[in-house]
Structures are given as structure tokens and as C-alpha cells.
Design goal:
CATH class of the largest domain: Alpha Beta
CATH architecture of the largest domain: Alpha-Beta Complex
Strand content: 5-15%
Helix content: 40-55%
Number of strands: 5
CATH topology of the largest domain: H-NOX domain
Structural class: alpha+beta
Distance between the termini: 20 Å
């Protein structure tokens, strides 16, 4: 089962991913102000060392890029801008790993520390080593943002690997779990290896010649220091999102079959209902929006990962009947639950 999705409100991540997308669109003549519209950011903020952004802001900019891009391969091009230095302490820890096995283990364990747009799993099956990815910005694999995030991640992983192991590094094969887009030929041009679509996983396969290749600047003391600091950052993540994150986490923890009204949630959090409403409004959201987001994420996971019927899912998500759930799901995804599962 996938890890729970990250909180979308906390502004705790560096803006390099947004900056990479804005830079590529600027190369194509799209003004940064357009790319950054509705994100609360401007071009100067992307250059300021103190700027931190949220997943909600990243998703907003990525959706802007989908709408504005003149080149459909913009995500692949933007990912290539993610050099080792864009990852801060996480990149420093990878570079100073003493073995490739240590680098691989660190990359997976501390992935969330650097604000990724996809979760990562390291897999070895029948002697074939690979990385598998699950997009984080949306749970809906039919959402164009899902493919955009994975394209960005594939290209960024290649750029980072070349900084770690040398410019000749390449993947043996890239596999995508979605249909081939119209710009599929660009994958091979950017990633430099065979690419297959409609596969069981989103996967980067590593050739045998790279299995034992070591990072270029191993240093046990430096790696240990960087690992400790990344661990501290991960430990603080659950407490960094303010009241919206607390509400979301409480809703998930009280699953299944119990989605309280706002009055009950406020009582659980030792707040007056009007205080909870005011605090959520200050973070640009509402209890109703958070509840819908949690239900949407869980509904998609149930349809993808279980055999529960629509009626069972509706009950588990707290709907009075399956018709109300179906109407909500169509509003969220544009498809009925049975259509989404079949697709």
C-alpha cells in the first residue's frame, strides 16, 4: 500500500522544481508571471534563499505549465534542470555516500525530505534493479498532472544520477504505467534509452554495468551528518502543517466509517467551531474542502487497490447512500466509479 499523501499546505520545501518549470517556459517565451499565476509567488521569490513552497503551490504551477506550454515535453525538459545542487542537503548526502547500496537506501528512506513530486521504491527482481515511482500531486492517474509529475521525475532522476556517477550514466529502460502521449518520441530523446508505455509500474531500470558504480565523492563523516539532519527534518514534517494538516491527519486516523461534523472535529481539537473555521480560512481552505480531498484520495485508492463495491466504498467514506458518492466522484474525476475502475 502506498504511503499516505503529504500535507499540501505547509510551505517547507525549496522552490527548485517550480523554478525549473518557470525557466523552461521562459525559454519558450512564456512570462514567469503567467507560469506562477495563483501560486502566491513571483520571479524574485524563486531567487530568494529563504523562500519555501508548499505542494499546493507546486501543483498550481505544474497545472499552469500544462495549460501554457507550447512544447508538450516541457516536464521532461524541466526535470533536466534538477542538478545535484538543487537537492540541498539530500543531494549532499547522496554525493558523500560510501557505497552505491548506501546511496540507494538513503534515496528511498529520505525521499520525502526534499519535497519530491513522486514517491520512490528500490526493487531488485530476477537480477534486474529498478526504481518505481508513484506520483504524489494527485491520486488520479487519469489527471494530466499525474503524467507531468512522472515525466519531471524521470528526467530529474537521470540528471541527478549523472552528477553522482558521471555524465555517461544512462538507464537501461524506462517504463510508464500510462498510455503513450502524443510527444512520446521526446522521451527517448531526453532520457536516452528505450521507453515503454502501458506497463504495470512507473519504473526506471538500471543496467548491470551500473549496479556496483560508486558515488564520486564518498565521505562517511559528511554522509552521517547529512543523514542525521535529513532524519530530523522528516521527524518534524507531521508537525509542520498547521491546523489544516492536523484536521486532515485526524480525519484519516478516525477512519473508517467516521467523518465527524466540524463541531465534533473542533471539540476533538479543543477548539470552538468558529475558531477552527477562522484558522482554516487563514490557511486558504475549509473543513468541507479538506473532507472532500480526503474522501477523494481514499476513494481512488479503494477503487485502484481493492475489490470493494461502490456501495461498500460509499459506506466507508461516510455517505448516506451510494448515489451521493457516485455524484461526488463524478464531480471529482469526471468519471463514474465503475468507469474509473475499468479504466
Amino acid at each position: 500500500m502506498r504511503r499516505p499523501p503529504p500535507d499540501v499546505e505547509p510551505c517547507i520545501h525549496t522552490p527548485q522544481r517550480i523554478a525549473a518549470v518557470a525557466a523552461v517556459l521562459a525559454e519558450d517565451g512564456v512570462a514567469p508571471a503567467q507560469t506562477l499565476a495563483h501560486s502566491g509567488l513571483d520571479a524574485s521569490a524563486l531567487r530568494a534563499p529563504e523562500t519555501r513552497v508548499s505542494y499546493r503551490q507546486i501543483a498550481t504551477v505544474f497545472r499552469n505549465a500544462l495549460r501554457l506550454a507550447r512544447d508538450p515535453a516541457v516536464a521532461l525538459r524541466a526535470g533536466a534542470h534538477m542538478r545535484l545542487t538543487a537537492y540541498g542537503l539530500y543531494g549532499y548526502a547522496l554525493l558523500s555516500s560510501t557505497t552505491q547500496a548506501e546511496a540507494m537506501e538513503f534515496a528511498v528512506k529520505y525521499n520525502r525530505a526534499m519535497g519530491p513530486v513522486a514517491d520512490i521504491t528500490h526493487v531488485i527482481e530476477q537480477g534486474v534493479e529498478s526504481f518505481r515511482y508513484d506520483a504524489l500531486l494527485t491520486p488520479d492517474s487519469a489527471d494530466p498532472l499525474h503524467r507531468f509529475a512522472l515525466e519531471f521525475t524521470f528526467s530529474a532522476h537521470l540528471s541527478l544520477s549523472r552528477d553522482l556517477f558521471g555524465p555517461s550514466f544512462s538507464f537501461e529502460e524506462v517504463r510508464a504505467a500510462y498510455p503513450a502521449p502524443d510527444h512520446a518520441p521526446a522521451y527517448g530523446q531526453v532520457l536516452g534509452c528505450p521507453v515503454r508505455f502501458d506497463q504495470p509500474f512507473n519504473e526506471l531500470r538500471i543496467g548491470a554495468e551500473w549496479h556496483q558504480r560508486q558515488p564520486r565523492l564518498p565521505d562517511a563523516a559528511t554522509h552521517g551528518m547529512a543523514r542525521e539532519l535529513c532524519g530530523q527534518f522528516l521527524a518534524e514534517l507531521p508537525h509542520s502543517g498547521g491546523i489544516a494538516s492536523t484536521v486532515r491527519r485526524t480525519l484519516v486516523e478516525q477512519m473508517p466509517w467516521r467523518f465527524p461534523r466540524i463541531d465534533t472535529m473542533a471539540q476533538t481539537l479543543a477548539l470552538e467551531p468558529r475558531t477552527l473555521r477562522r484558522k482554516l480560512e487563514a490557511q486558504g481552505t475549509s473543513y468541507r474542502e479538506i473532507l472532500a480531498e480526503v474522501r477523494r484520495t481514499l476513494a481512488i485508492e479503494y477503487l485502484r487497490k481493492t475489490r470493494m463495491t461502490t456501495e461498500e466504498i460509499a459506506s466507508r467514506l461516510g455517505y448516506s447512500d451510494s448515489a451521493n458518492f457516485r455524484h461526488a466522484f463524478v464531480r471529482w474525476t469526471g468519471k463514474a466509479p465503475h468507469e474509473y475502475r475499468r479504466g
